[in-house]
Amino acid sequence: MTSLNGKPSSLIPDFDKLSIDERLRHVERFAGLSEEDMQQLRAPSNLDRELANHMIENMVATIAIPVGVATGLRIDGEEFLVPMATEESWIISAVGNAAQACHDTGGFTTSASGSCMIAQVQLLGLTNPHSARIAILEKRNEIAAECAACDPTLTRFGGGFHDLEVRILGEGADAMVVVHLIIDCRDAMGANTVNTMAERIAPKLQAWTGGRPALRILSNLADRRLVRARATWIPEALGGEAVRDAILEAYRFAEVDPYRAVTNNKGIMNCVSAVVLATGNDTRAVEAAAHGYAAASGRIRSLTKWEVAPDGALAGSIELPMPVGLVGGAVKIHPTARALVAILGVKSAEHLGRIIAAIGLAANFAALKALSTHGIQKDFMAHHARNFAIGAGATGDEIDLVARSLVERRSISTAAAEQVLAEVRKSR
Ligand code: MEV
After folding, report:
1. Domain for residue 326, yes or no?
2. Which atom of ligand 1 is nearest to 88's Cα?
């Protein structure tokens, strides 16, 4: 059956049971793909197709994202090269420059609050939520034992049940009791573990209180798993006190204006998510947690803080939730993610998270410095110019020639790139 737009039906029976190539053929017919498109989708990558097929449903192809390495990171006295997977040009060199500017004056100092995640169980239909709350708190030991039985391995590694909270939200007939199981997930991100625990505890909560369990799911506001980093940049490394003060003004803008704060934090997440992705972790979980945490005061603010140290240096700090793991999920099975974790040489999820905090701080420094001095377009465009050159068809040494000419002309567009490329070719 064809649809109004002339395309075949998107209902494809047993699509998930087909081979990857059969699925691709359906997609080819559906979308009218060219042979060039098909070749691209079939092209091998460093993620084996069969492994990819096991990782998600209805898999048809893989997409490669460039991985770069940020240099110059001195974190807690140790040296690091940090892999970043991103399609955004300029950010890796920007992070490296920011890190190098504080490298010889101490680099980054990091810490973490722990590795606990929260699982929520929502209980409805209770006329006596306050009594129910107390009744649940009385069962702390039983709840701890149930959680331990869910994941004995986690308990053996020193994790598992950590704390219990019971909240009452709403009033009267709308009141709900929300139980928080606070679980130390150690080196796992922990979503599967805490979801299993929430589902296992829910019927017990019903038996103890008469409340009807509704949602049983982790909270992505991972505020029991904070990572922190701080660093100072002396005025000489910044280009002077005027630059320091300009960075402070830029920061104050984000503190008072949500429109700016979201952009400020997007710049931080450019680099945070790049490391999260490179290490096979869940970018959406880290992003949701970061943005939620930034708005925890009721208004979104900068994830970083900037001030002047007594010696006149620019002092930056960052605190954000970091639900990342080193065991379980894609990080365990994706061979490239494993190799990139090996570049970092970290042995715990907490250590990975602390390095990511340092990267986030460096990212914000780089963006604020560029924005408050020469403006971002200079940095952006120098890198984007290469993409425009490639988009216009430049290859080999043409790419740099065209990109340089676009930057010099301060005219960066597809049309300009095509014109410059034509000129380059004519002159040869
Ligand atoms: C662009 O990807 C990120 C920035 O907009 C961040 C910022 O404005 O702070 C440059």
Report:
1. yes
2. 2
Domain that holds residue 262: 15-113+225-372
- Residue 3 included in any domain: no
Mean pLDDT of 254-270: 98
Mean pLDDT of the chain: 95
Which residues, judged by CB distance below 6 Å to any ligand atom, belong to the binding site of ligand 1?
Answer: 88, 263-264, 266-267, 270, 367, 371, 376
In this structure, which residue's CA is closest to atom 3 in ligand 1? 267
> Do 403 and 307 fall into the same domain?
no
- Atom 4 in ligand 1: residue holding the nearest Cα: 267
The structure's pTM equals: 0.93
- The answer to whether residues 297 and 357 belong to one domain is yes
Q: Which residues pair with 160 in a beta bridge?
A: 184
Same domain for 382 and 365, yes or no, is no
Residue 8 backbone dihedrals phi, psi, to 5 degrees: -65, 170
Our count of domains for the chain comes to 3
Give yes or no: residues 333 and 307 share one domain: yes
User: Ligand 1 atom 6: the closest Cα is on which residue?
Assistant: 267
Mutate to test the pocket of ligand 1, among 376, 377, 380, 381 (most ligand atoms within 8 A of CB): 376
Q: 412: how many CB neighbours lie within 10 A of its CB?
A: 19
Nearest CA to ligand 1 atom 9: 264
Each residue of 343-386: pLDDT tens digit? 999 999 999 999 999 999 999 999 999 999 988 777 777 778 88
Q: Report the relative pairing of strands 176-184 and 226-233 from DSSP bridges.
A: unpaired
Which atom of ligand 1 has the smallest separation from the CA of 370? 10
Give the number of the atom of ligand 1 that is nearest the alpha carbon of residue 376: 10
Q: How far apart are CA 382 and CA 247, in angstroms?
A: 22
Residue nearest to atom 1 of ligand 1 (CA): 267
